[in-house]
Specification:
It comes from Amycolatopsis tolypomycina. This is DUF3800 domain-containing protein. InterPro entries: DUF3800. This protein is α/β, with parallel strands linked by helices. It has 13 helices and five strands. It has helices spanning about 35-50, 60, 65-75, 90-105, 110-125, 125-140, 150-160, 165-175, 180-190, 200-215, 230-240, 260-280, 285-290; strands spanning about 5-10, 25-30, 85-90, 220-225, 245-250. It has a five-stranded mixed β-sheet. Helix 11 links the parallel strand 4 and strand 5. It is globular.
Length: about 300
């Protein structure tokens, strides 16, 4: 069966830097659209916005004066209807879920949601954030900044939080048996160039993108904006994970492929809309328009599980 090409791009990528970075949401978008249609869509966006910029980005669409263009792009009868998909990741929740998955035996999605919701109140917001920052640090051999947290220091924090009365303290107490798993993960990270870091949301999002577009049984070939994190070794792991669903991955410069430019637009506006929703300043109209594009299995936690 001939594969279908899906053009992809992301927004909010900071690798394993889940906390304290520039963004609190990661978005990965996939577009199924013929090249001529994508080129026509880009031309229409340029005509409606009228900016002299050589390359348009999502920020152009997010400006208040261009709100009608953004609503047109996301509308149920707009150019992306049925052609776009986006997987969202709340980076803080992703970190909590990674901690539960790696440290708790057995860890569950329900446990991660409970801890994510109760942790800030139970331990204090600053103390909880420091704990998650230490978890992120201990799983990175080369942190971006500051002094790395040692496994010994991290599990001392685990013991400290485990003494806090209540459900959150009891859940963190289940992390105390994870020292050997952390040591094994750090050892693999140092020796296996193909290992997908548990803290990087990119590869899981790509997997969801492929699964969405191959749900009918048609294999997918990704046409992806150049992305250093998708190394040759990780592409091989993606193929091993996805089997016949993934026919291949081809990297292009977004400036050379209108389909990838459209994916860049969708990823960028989705990240901003979702981040606003996450932080209590959501726009109900834009949230509703975005909902039809968002993967049901996005890494999200909230009353409506985010903009979905």
């Amino acid at each position: 069966m001939r594969p279908v090409e899906i053009a992809c791009d992301e927004s909010g990528s900071e690798g394993e830097n889940l906390l304290g970075g520039e963004t609190d949401v990661f978005a990965h978008a996939g577009i199924r659209m013929p090249g001529p249609d994508a080129a026509a869509c880009v031309r229409e966006i340029r005509a409606r916005i009228g900016s002299p910029a050589e390359e348009y980005k999502a920020n152009h669409l997010l400006r208040a004066k261009h709100r009608p263009v953004l609503e047109w792009l996301l509308a149920p009868d707009g150019p992306l209807a049925g052609r776009g998909h986006v997987h969202l990741t709340d980076k803080t929740f992703f970190a909590v879920r990674a901690a539960v998955t790696l440290l708790a035996e057995p860890g569950t999605e329900a446990m991660a949601r409970t801890l994510h919701r109760t942790g800030p109140a139970a331990f204090g917001a600053a103390r909880w954030e420091s704990f998650l920052t230490a978890f992120v640090s201990v799983l990175r051999l080369r942190p971006r900044r500051g002094v790395p947290t040692s496994p010994e220091d991290f599990f001392a924090l685990v013991a400290e939080l485990a003494r806090v009365p209540g459900e959150a303290g009891e859940l963190v107490a289940r992390f105390r048996g994870g020292a050997e798993r952390v040591a094994a993960y750090r050892a693999r990270l140092a020796t296996d160039p193909g290992l997908v870091p548990v803290l990087d949301p990119l590869v899981p999002a790509v997997i969801h993108t492929v699964r969405h577009w191959s749900a009918s049984g048609t294999p997918v070939e990704l046409v992806h904006d150049e992305q250093l994190a998708l190394t040759a070794e990780r592409v091989l792991q993606l193929k091993a994970t996805l089997g016949p669903r993934l026919a291949g991955v081809r990297f292009v410069d977004s400036r050379d492929d209108a389909r990838v430019q459209i994916a860049d637009f969708l990823a960028g506006v989705a990240r901003r809309i979702a981040s606003d929703e996450r932080n209590g300043r959501g726009d109900p109209v834009l949230t509703t328009l975005l909902r039809s594009f968002v993967d049901a299995d996005s890494v999200w936690d909230g009353p409506e599980r985010g903009a979905r």
